[in-house]
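Figure-free illustration: sequence to structure, shown twice.
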Amino acid sequence: MVMLVPLRRFQDGRGWFAETYNDHRFAELGIDVTFRQDNHVTSYAAGVLRGLHFQRPPHGQAKLVRCVRGRIWDVAVDVRAGSPTYGRWAAVELTAENGLSLYVPIGYAHGYLTIEAGAEVAYKVSDLHAPDCEGGIAWDDPTLALPWPLPAGPPLLSDKDRILPAFKDFESPFAYDGRPLTPLGS
C-alpha cells in the first residue's frame, strides 16, 4: 500500500542525522522490497511537473521518494486492474524539513510537482530502468481530476509527459494484490 514513512532524526547543535533507509525497519512497516537503483533529480524552477509515470511488468518499480531540498507535491494513483480503489490517488507535500518519504508500490502511477525552485528529489526503485517498459498517464486527466497546486501559468513538462495517454484509454498491466489504497497516515 502507499505509505508515508517519517525519518527519525537525531539532532544536536551541529545539525541532524537521519537513517533514510534500513531494510529491517522497513520490513517491520510491511515494506519488504529490495531496492536496486537510486535516483536524484534537480528541478530548476517551481512548477516542474514530472509524471504520471510507471514501469510495466516484468520491470515494475516500487519507489521510495523523498525531497532533499525545497518542496514538492507528490502523488500516487492506483492503476491496478480490479482494485476497488482503481483511479483513486493519495498525495502529500514532501519537504526537506518534514522528513517524510512516500512509499509507492508497483501498480501505482507516480508524479510530482515542484513547489519551490531548486527542489531536489532522491528516490529508490525496486528494478532497473527499462525504457521498453516505460508508461504513464496524462497529468491533467479530467477523470483523475488531480488538484495540482500549480503556480501561475502551465507546468513545465518533458516532451514525453506532454503526450501521455488519457486514463480512460489506459489498459492496466498491473494486478490487484488485495490491498486497496488507504488514506495516508492510516
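We now fold a second protein in the same way, so the two outputs can be compared directly.
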Amino acid sequence: MSVSLPDQGTRVNPERLWGFVVAGAFAWVVGYSLNGGFWDWVVYDLVGLEPEDRLGEAVHFFVSDTTTILLLLGGIIFIVAVMRSFVTIECTRRLLGGRREGLGNVAAAGLGVVTPFCSCSAVRAFIGFVSTGVPLGVTLSFLIASPMVNEVAVNLIFGMFGFKVAAMYVTFGLLVAIGAGFILGRMRLERWVEPFVFEMKLRGELIEPSIDMPWEDRLALGRQEVRTIVGKIWTYVLVGIAIRAAIHGWAPEGFFASIA
C-alpha cells in the first residue's frame, strides 16, 4: 500500500498528535453508543415515521445499521493497519521459518489472519517464504488465510449477522487454509515452482522490521487504509443493508425460515 507520509518539516508534536487520537477515539465511542437513540429521534420524532409502520422500521434499520457497520469497519481497519505497521513480510517469514507441516500449517493460518497482507503482496510473500526455507504447504496455508479471513469481511459479517456467524466464518476459513495447505504440501508441488524462487535466498539478507517508524506515520497509514478500503466497498455495504432493510421491513415473519 502506498501512502504519502508527513514530511519531516510538517511533523505534529507528540502531545497534539495523541490529543487527536484520544479525541477521535472518544468521538467513535460516543457515536457508537448513541447511534440507536440518535436515529430513533431523527426517524420517529423529527421525520415523523411510526415505529410500528413497515416503512419506518425499514428506514430506521437502514440508517442505524449503516452507521454501526461503517463505524465498526473504520475503527477495526484503522487499528489493524496501525498494528500491521509493526509487522513486515520479512518478520512474518522469520516466524514461520523452520516450521514443519502440520503444526506449521496451523501457525501459518493463524498468522495469516492477524497479518492480512493485501493481494498485491502475495507474490512477494510467496517468494520470500519459500526462498528462506518455509515449506510450500505452510506458505500456502498463510497465503490462503491472509486474504480470506480478514478484518473487513469479519466485521461485515459480525455487523450483519452477529458473533456466531462471524465465528463460524473465521473457523471454517482457518480449517480451509490449514487443510488445503497441508494437502498441497503433501502433493510435493515444489517441482512446479520456478527455480529462481529457491535461488533468491542466496541474494542478500533478510530485512529487519521497521521499529523506528514514527507514530505519526503509523497513524497516517491507518487513516489511508480506512479511506482506501471503505472508499472501495461503501456502495456494496449500502446496497446490502438496503436489501436487508427491505426484507426486515416487508418480508413476512417466518418466510425465510419456512424456505430454509
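Summary for the second example: The first helix runs from residue 14 to 33.
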